[in-house]
Amino acid sequence: MSDTTTRSFRSGDRLVLATHNKGKYRENAALLAPYGLEVLSAGDLGLPEPEETGATFEENAVLKARAACETTGLPAVADDSGLDVPALGGQPGIHTARWAGPQRDFFMAMQRVHDALGDNPDRRGFFCCNLSVAWPDGATASFEGRLEGTLVWPVRGGLGFGFDPMFQPKGFALTFGEMDPAKKEAMSHRAVAFAKLSRALLEKA
Questions:
Q1: Is 84 annotated as catalytic?
Q2: Which of 15, 29, 106, 161 could pair with 23 as two cysteines, CB 3.0-4.6 Å apart?
Q3: Domains and CATH numbers, the chain
Q4: Which pTM value belongs to this model?
Q5: How many angstroms separate the CA atoms of 127 and 166, rounded?
Q6: Cβ neighbours for 39, distance < 8 A, ≥ 6 positions apart
Q7: Which of 80, 115, 137, 180 is catalytic?
């Protein structure tokens, strides 16, 4: 992580959210809304999606943030996130999206996780998120969020995206697929990472 002591974003600053995933863009844009920033989407700007060749969430997030920053000349924030299942050796992990196939069929991905777990009583899952920021001078900063839950079957709820209908956060009776989106967004792994980023880099409008 770079030294962020002299870096911050203020109301009116422009930055790029380096994602083509509409669900991730919506959640991250909502988290940034109180800060008065002009938030641009990599998808809306037509930026290419870089190949995610990193071995960790952080490496992939930095890679995506740097690619958007270098293309636009603006600071960029990228999110790399996924599901870590201890009973599956951490899979699907950084390959979470690939488990959904080229059609991004996350019901199929959830079925794959369920089938892989079989009768294993360890149904823990961790949603992991890394938010990385890249600046035009080459500096970067990264912030991690992690949330524990139980992987339920059959899946429940039609809200959210990805593995949300399978993920029941620890201490709650509802899955993220059943939970009010505002409540989910306030407690998610992405919100945990964002809280760290905001303390370090953001000034409220």
A1: no
A2: 161
A3: 14-201 (3.90.950.10)
A4: 0.89
A5: 11
A6: 14, 15, 16, 17, 29, 32
A7: 80
